Amino acid sequence: KESSFRYENFNPFVFAEIPSKTRVLDIGCATGLLGRRLREEKGCVVVGIEADATMAEEARKNTDEIILADLEKQIPPSLGAFDVIVCADVLEHLKDPMAVLESLKPHLSDKGFFLISVPNIAFIQTRLNLLFGSFDYNPQGGIMDATHLRFFTMKTLVALLQETDLGIDFVRGYNLVKKRYFFLEPMGRWLPTVFAIQFLAKARAK
After folding, report:
1. Rounded distance between C-alpha atoms, residue 3 and residue 9, angstroms
2. 10: Cβ contacts below 8 Å, ≥ 6 apart
3. DSSP 191
4. Is 97 helix (H, G, I), strand (E, B) or coil?
5. Three-state secondary structure along the chain?
6. N-to-C CA span, the chain
7. pLDDT of residue 150
8. CA-CA-CA-CA torsion for 104, 107, 110, 113, nearest 10 degrees?
9. pLDDT tens sequence across 191-203
10. Distances (CA, A) of 74 to 44, 50, 81, 203
11. pLDDT at residue 5 above 60?
12. Mean pLDDT lowest for which of 2-6, 115-119, 149-153, 183-187?
């Protein structure tokens, strides 16, 4: 089911990019599993923002602080500064991703950066579906998740970051897949615009 992927797992690709002993803001932290691993294994201080009250309550035991808030209505001004702001599988659910990134930029420390993960709408399977006239939302999640409001290719993700006046360290494709789809991992690195299911970007304020 949808929750088994989105809420009961954490993203190891995001985790790997976060330095130890840093102060991390996890946007849309769900039940806080990323925060728990960061605190236990890297000694990070983790603050989570979550709009769902039930998940936020669960995340309290996995983070140093939880803020129950809707990002598109108001970001608490007293957040402070963070070395890393994580937006993992968040921007595609927002009406105005640029406005949210703009509102988060003042909360980056001097050397702070964003880690942003979004699904790739131009993945080969979606391209083939479009070729045959199909653009169907999936209530079980994935690229065509029924709750997605925005869709990204590598080009449009780069454009969003540039328009938000962020300096881009990297944008790369990756595939977090079951073992039987192991062949997608190297293919996603080789030709990410077509074979990567998701993109990971690291960007910072100029």
Report:
1. 9
2. 33, 34, 37
3. S
4. helix
5. CHHHHHCCCCCHHHHHCCCCCCEEEEECCCCCHHHHHHHHHHCCEEEEEECCHHHHHHHCCCCCEEEECCCCCCCCCCCCCEEEEEEECCHHHCCCHHHHHHHHHHHEEEEEEEEEEEEECCCHHHHHHHHCCCCCCECCCCCCECCCCCCECHHHHHHHHHHCCEEEEEEEEECCCCHHHCCHHHHHHHCHHHHCCEEEEEEEEC
6. 40
7. 96
8. -40
9. 999 999 999 999 9
10. 25, 12, 17, 23
11. no
12. 2-6
What pLDDT score was predicted for residue 9? Answer: 65
What are the tokens at 43?
């000694």
Most trustworthy range by pLDDT among 16-25, 51-60, 67-76: 16-25
Q: Does the predicted model carry a pTM greater than 0.90?
A: yes
Residue with the larger pLDDT of the pair 1 and 85: 85
DSSP β-bridge partners for residue 118: 199
